[in-house]
Specification:
alpha+beta, 5-stranded antiparallel β-sheet, 4-stranded antiparallel β-sheet, 15 strands, 61% helix
Length: 678
């Protein structure tokens, strides 16, 4: 236990020198490291105590424990470090957000190694001197006798049966894999890239058709505010703390980007902190929106809540093409399709309609007279916007002199009927005789992406009824190919989906690197190419336990769960390493294969249980934490705690089974080789 503050102080010293800080992520890394710290001390201390109880002196037992456990503890620490090192290579938002975790964990492991082999032996020697081989207390004797009975009369028969019935044990473990695969394929276990923590700000944004009288916009936003307070009263009152009503200003993309114009209006609401109320934002928004009657001319009404964590909306689909009108039609069709999917809400796009426009095209007469679109456009601009004739200074101001039509003509649409266009030869003709006018709606904003016109459709997903990845898969398979064929455009998922692709690629490469490093370390320790595969076989089954834990806890796996799986991969092999090392020592003493495997599992039972229980106990309080910040980290804690709990039983049963199978095959091959040589 003394190793915990010692390792923490050393780690904080390294963090300070590296310019880090104590924050939510680094504190969680320290919590996660609690079990890892005591694992090394438990292994060294348990081995030293065992030898001390056999009659060795305190100095011999303490030094011998550190010497005997140096290779297995060092290798287990290196495998854990190897599992965390690839997390340094993750880029983007996730890499910046979670970069403290691998850094702190690696620092803690190094500090723990120094403490376990340079400081702990001295502590153990003094502790053993205090014991002086004294007779244990009655409580201690009862505990030791109870554990011994469990080990010899309950565990030993089970592990012996497992070693002699390898096929049955492997079939049972594979059955868990099949069940998990069914849960994944059946959609019982989904995936969310990043957990959204419920915020306290809700934004209602209304967009009317351009040209709507401002009075109608003001009247509707007043109704929205009235409905807000009715919703607040319906839930007992006291939920709303601050309200801001704005006309001429609206928002899109979850209230983070502003739009201005007479057709926009918004209501921004600040609620009391979510951990102080039972009413969730989704319920509040649904009740608020249900009280509103949408008037004629209302194009969009989105009520969204700002969430903490990863920026952006749950769904972002970018459509790119050459024709703005075709893109807008495709965006509207996509919005309608999204609205028909249960759980998808607050749908909008970033190409809002603007004022009505008159688009002119030269007719055959105009072309025959030598006019061009540029000529007509330049003349219309000069008449209605003015031609710069002179600039002069008056006092400290610069004054522009522009020549244009009188205001009475410029603000009268019928002025186009009286407008005369100049021909290249200096003559004039009526404008409407050389051009054709078409009336259509323009756009408030036209956006580009990678040099092409683009429109992005945004939407939120109710996590209780839908999954963003499932919605994307549905769009990819059924809707978007039809839009591509109909409108000749291209599409891509942006925002969180783009970050998810990037992070997934980094993690795939990191996983291959981690597995390769773990295998190299194990092959170095064992001096064998086959034994590392037995130890590493526990990793997939640990992942199975982690995903079952998400299912049992009702927690959706996230990218933080994947971080936890990396950590789990390094942790679950630690117990297996020490078990195989003990098996190797027993075999060198001449014990048979199956007897050595059973004896190694029984001798390491206490250490395996202690190391797993301490790690799980360190994370257990976080699993039941209700604060908002903990919601980011709970998926990672679920991965490690449940995966380790499941893997512990497999270490004690599956690893001996696989080891027995590998050794039996090796002995058969060597025997056949010997017979063939004879």
């Amino acid at each position: 236990a003394v190793g915990i503050p010692v390792s923490f102080m050393a780690t904080l010293g390294i963090v300070y020198v590296a310019g880090g800080s104590i924050n939510m992520i680094s504190l969680f890394a320290l919590i996660m490291a609690l079990g890892i710290i005591v694992d090394d001390a438990i292994v060294v201390g348990e081995d030293a105590l065992t030898h001390y109880q056999t009659g060795e002196s305190s100095l011999e037992a303490a030094e011998g424990g550190a010497r005997r456990m140096l290779a297995p503890v060092m290798s287990s620490s290196l495998t854990t470090i190897a599992a965390f090192i690839p997390l340094f290579a993750i880029s983007g938002f996730i890499g910046k957000f979670l970069g403290d975790i691998p850094f702190v964990i690696v620092c803690v492991i190094i500090a723990s190694l120094i403490e376990s082999f340079l400081i702990l032996p001295g502590h153990l020697r003094h502790s053993f001197k205090g014991i002086q081989h004294a007779e244990a207390s009655p409580l201690r004797r009862r505990l030791d006798n109870g554990f011994s009975r469990f080990r010899d009369h309950a565990f030993r028969p089970v592990v012996t049966w497992a070693v002699h019935n390898r096929v049955a044990v492997i079939a049972i473990t594979l059955a868990f894999v099949v069940v998990l695969f069914g849960l994944l394929r059946g959609g019982r276990i989904g995936f969310a890239f990043f957990p959204n923590v419920e915020g306290n700000v809700v934004v209602a944004s209304a967009t009317f058709v351009a040209g709507t009288p401002p009075e109608r916009v003001h009247a509707f936003i007043a109704e929205v505010e009235t409905a807000l307070y009715e919703t607040n009263d319906a839930f007992g009152g006291g939920l709303v703390t601050v309200t801001n009503v704005a006309t001429g200003r609206g928002f899109f993309s979850s209230g983070r980007q502003e739009q201005q114009g007479e057709q926009f209006a918004s209501v921004t609401v600040e609620l009391i902190p979510s951990d102080q109320r039972e009413v969730r934002n989704e319920v509040f928004i649904a009740d608020w929106e249900g009280r509103l009657n949408k008037p004629p001319g209302l194009e969009y009404l989105t009520i969204t809540s700002r969430t903490g964590g990863h920026p952006g909306r749950d769904l972002e689909v970018r459509l790119s093409g050459q024709d703005a009108n075709a893109l807008k039609r495709a965006a509207l069709e996509l919005s309608d399709s999204l609205a028909a999917i249960p759980g998808v809400l607050a749908i909008e796009d970033d190409m809002p309609y603007g004022q009505q426009q008159l688009v002119f095209r030269l007719n055959p007469l105009g072309e025959s007279l030598g006019l061009s679109v540029e000529d007509v456009g330049r003349q219309l601009r000069g008449a209605f916007d003015g031609e710069l004739a002179q600039i002069f200074n008056e006092a400290d101001e610069e004054v522009e002199v522009r020549v244009m039509l009188p205001d009475a003509e410029r603000y009268r649409l019928s002025a186009l009927e009286d407008f005369s266009a100049f021909l290249p030869n200096g003559q004039t003709v009526p404008l409407l005789s050389v051009v054709d006018l078409e009336e259509r709606r323009g756009f408030k904003a036209v956006r580009h992406a990678e040099g092409r016109l683009a429109v992005t459709v945004y939407a939120d997903v109710n996590k209780k009824t839908a999954n963003a990845n499932s919605v994307r898969a549905q769009l990819r398979e059924s809707l978007l190919p039809g839009l591509v064929e109909q409108y000749g455009l291209s599409w891509e998922f942006t925002g969180r989906a783009e970050d998810q692709r990037e992070t997934a690629g980094d993690m795939q490469r990191g996983a291959l690197f981690a597995l390769a490093m773990i295998y190299i370390v194990l092959a170095w320790v064992f001096g064998s190419y086959g034994w590392p595969l037995v130890v590493m076989a526990i990793i997939p089954f640990g992942i199975v336990g982690a995903l079952f834990g998400h299912y049992l806890m009702g927690v959706t796996p996230t990218i933080l769960s994947m971080f936890g799986l990396f950590a789990l991969s390094g942790i679950v092999v630690n117990d297996s390493i020490i078990l195989v090392v003990f098996y190797k020592q027993l075999r060198e003493k001449g014990m048979g294969v199956k007897e050595a495997i059973v004896e190694a599992a029984c001798q390491r039972l206490r250490a395996v249980l202690l190391t797993s229980l301490t790690t799980i106990a360190g994370l257990l309080p976080l699993l039941f934490e209700t604060s908002l910040q903990a919601q980011f980290l709970i998926p990672m804690a679920v991965s490690i705690s449940f995966g380790l709990a499941f893997a512990t039983f497999l270490v004690l049963l599956l690893v001996p089974t696989l080891l027995a199978g590998l050794e039996g095959a090796r002995l058969r091959l060597s025997g056949e080789a010997a017979r063939s040589t004879v």
